[in-house]
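Weekly puzzle thread! Below is a chain. First person to post its structure in token form gets bragging rights.
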Amino acid sequence: MDFNLRPYQEEVVQAALRGQNSIIWLPTGGGKTRAAVYVTKNHLETTANAKVAVLVNKVHLVDQHFAKEFNPFLASRYKVTAISGDSNEKDLFGTLVKGSDLVICTAQILENALTNTEEEKHVELTDFTLLVIDECHHTQKEAVYNKIMGRYVEKKVRKEGNLPQILGLTASPGTGGNRTLDKAVEHVLQICANLDSVIVSTKNFTPVLQKVVPRPRKQYDIVEKRPLDPFGDHLKMMMVMIHEFMPPTVSRSLREMGTQEYEADVVELEKEGVKTESRLIAQCALHLRQYNDALLINDTVRMVDAFRVLDEFYNSRKTRMLDVTDYFLQGVFDENRVELKQLASNALYENPKLAKLQHTLQDEFHNEKSRGILFSKTRRGTHCLYDWVNTNPELQKVNITAGILTGAGTGANHMTQNKQKETIQHFREGILNLLISTSVAEEGLDIPECNLVVRYGLLTNEIAQQQASGRARAMNSVYSVVAEEGGRELRRELINEYLEGLTARAIDQVQQMSPRDFRLKISELQQIAVMIRIQTERKKDAKKQRYSPGQVQFQCRGCFLPVCTGEDFRKIENTHHVNINTEFERHYRTGGPVVLERSFEDWEPGRVINCRNCGKDWGMEIKFKKVVILPCLKIKSFSLKTSEGTKTPKYWKDTEFQVKAFDFIDDMSSRFPGLDLDD
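Winning reply:
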């Protein structure tokens, strides 16, 4: 296949063709990936022993870049391999790299290979001659891109080995949340330092780029505040009852109900209840969070959706009544359930945002070629909007066929990877003409040009706004913001408009720096980053040694029942934390099977496990080596009692004791005394 780069693409690849580390900054739809394919082809043709890795931050982008971009242009001359978390071959990553000219993989797979000590799985950064980093604005803080580039920068500062050339791709580096030009410039420079790259954009062919990627017409669909909200008011009255059930000093510290701030408060309140072993406070906080979620849903979609969320929650808990707190909380809902249901079905008080959204959709879906994306904040929100679209007779008249697109995973409202691919394919083929999506559709995905993009009830940053608006690329397309008059969404959107312009000014200022000043600044930032990284690693190591495993007592977070110690845990594949003590089995009961879309080298999923005492979800069983069944636990389902108080880590990496790697022979010998595994 021949390349037909547009003039602005030819302009932005010049630094990379000279072998210079560079970040290509072009808007969504501007052809960044095609430019990267061109650079890769040139690199493979002109570099001795060339080896290229294309890194992406989402699994579905592996197949997309392979099938749509790199393979069609390069497969006739080079060995191109796609590897993702779904690939069984990922476990032989080092071997696959040796046998390929180009690998396309998720950044996490490369990160795992860099830290793995097994020869067939291990690689070094110096094994590659070019790294292409897609959506490279994520190369900051604790993101996996930055872990990889942290090693790169450290090797560069220490002058270790021949490092690969870097090519980053982004539609927006953003301002890092900064609102002044000086701070925005610092942020862009930090991204450049993290990627050891200059940032390039078109200077001579802006009109051509604007013709290829036209800006959509932006409209603010402003809605007046709902004058009366008896359903929401009733929810708040029930929340006040729960407040009054708690100690007075506790409820006084909570902010306005129905806000993100209130949610943050009750999350902290639950932790406080766990740490002080006050089940009353911990459980009240958990239930208040459900009510607050219902208020947020009521503010965004229908009252019936908010009611359904609460109804399902309380139906699932009727068999878990442990003490007076449970009976009180269940009673509050049961006593108000009928009235809530009646209020939720009264169309007179329905959410006015939905009426505005309906008109916007009707206006734009007037012909059979219309395509649109409706962005919602949460997975639950996408499902609520999907139900609303499919039961709305006026929207059926304009032949809207909707599909849901959310992030992949195994939790509630997650999609499988295959379902994601199928939904996008149906949208591409026109079987679906409206995607109701979370932020997963903002960046990276190969989605056809849309004539309508709607941001509905969203509070996000300027990067997300630019990515979303970039989806409206058809001629005369519309970018709609449905928001309440004077509301936070509207204020955030206006701030983002300002920050988008600020990003461009900051990049322009960085590009105007003299090469010498730029190199000195980047070098300074990199040396600081290396020192911070070393200090951070030392602190992490020290933190992991704070307690011996036997000193850490695990308690169920739902009922505070002591169930095991840290000594009982082992790590499989440096990720899965399993309990090897056979005594632990008496503390849990099993539920239905866990179904995962992909297979794994050494284990397969078993059944869901819950606390036998209170029903708290603890994780799942896994079958290891097709022989032994082990409970694999979620750390957030437990509180950890130590000599310095109770801890509530959210992730296993936050624990303050060392977990040994699982040794099949040693650990199975201790699990089954008398069994001789050496025979």
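Puzzle host: Confirmed. Bonus trivia for everyone else. The first strand starts at residue 22 and ends at 25.
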